[in-house]
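Form 7-S
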Amino acid sequence: MKPIVLFLCVHNAGRSQMAAGWMRRLAGDRIEVRSGGSAPAGEINPSAVAVMAEEGIDITTQQPTKWTDDEVRAADVVVTMGCGDTCPVFPGKRYLDWELTDPAGLPIEDVRPIRDDIRARVERLIEDLE
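Output:
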């Protein structure tokens, strides 16, 4: 069975969507990728969309969604990004907390380093899982 990685942040509009985009690109179908938020935004952050498009990754078809307890229980790895106490914790799951700047409201030039940091972290996670 392929591992399931779940990326969680508050709005599921920036960090978690970029991480999911990178994971899908870099891992292909070897890892099942999901994402969610505690208080999903109405749309994906336009700056996140733009910086990912610069890398040839289209995240425009993704929608911010609220995570469910069932999704968290199904995941092998849960990566949290700034959701603090609202992130669900279930025994027996592998949790990673990635401290990343929230790209909300930032100009594209300030979102690029966040995108690149997320890519490096995703690459390390893929290596770890394989």
